[in-house]
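Hey, can you fold this one?
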Amino acid sequence: MKLTHKLCGAVLLAAVGVAVAVPGITKADAEADKQFAGDMDIQFTANDADKTDSSRPDLTDSDGSADTEIISGTITRPLRPVIFGIQDVTPLSFGKQAIVTDGNDRVFWAKNYEEPNGVMANNVAIKDVRNTLDHGYTLTAKITSPLTTMVKDGAKEVEQNLAGATLYYRNIGVKTNVAEAIALPGSAVKEYATVEEGTETVFVDNKKPNPGDSVYEKGQGQSYIHFGKLNATGEFASTKSVRLTIGKEKSIFEGDYKGVVTWVMAEAK
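Sure. Predicted structure:
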């Protein structure tokens, strides 16, 4: 009987020994077993189409229909492919005008840009799809060549220009093809501006409000800086948004005058 008790006691001690050797499963371990962190990844590369795409962006209203405030119909004039810069500037045409010398400044308004199947308000098309944290930039303009023609003087021709003439832009707005959160804000675009020879005039001043910030996302995508709207009337019409003023002291001759306005888009400093 004593032997039996001793054997049973040995078996019991062995069982207790095993129980002590196996660690207990805590509540935290049990909860951890219910979770698993799965990895994920994606790789982005530059869009090669930006290097060759000359098509115009589709502009839509809030209801998804085509925006016709600055473009109506089909415009085939191509855009210059860029990553960062100016894609197009509509040529300013003031039409055929009679010479008037009445002691007053001569004022003329630019016509809309027209093609056989479409019409467009005068504008400057810009683009910024840089791989950068700071999308700040400026857009400026100045007259780099005054309106000039050749005037016959007997057997020779003499160059005559309209130096001192100015361009006044008003009803300036912006249309873009990206989400509002990263679009060029309207507050960065001047409401009006006068362009002269020799002096750069700022049209867009898109800079981060806090110079200390390293990230500034506004100004991305393609944007039209437009002058007036096709469907506006009176003083707000696109045909009343770019004004050429020739001083009363300047002589005007018969001829086909040509000039140049140079626009510059530069990274914000």
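The longest strand covers residues 137-153. Let me know if you want another pass with a different chain boundary.
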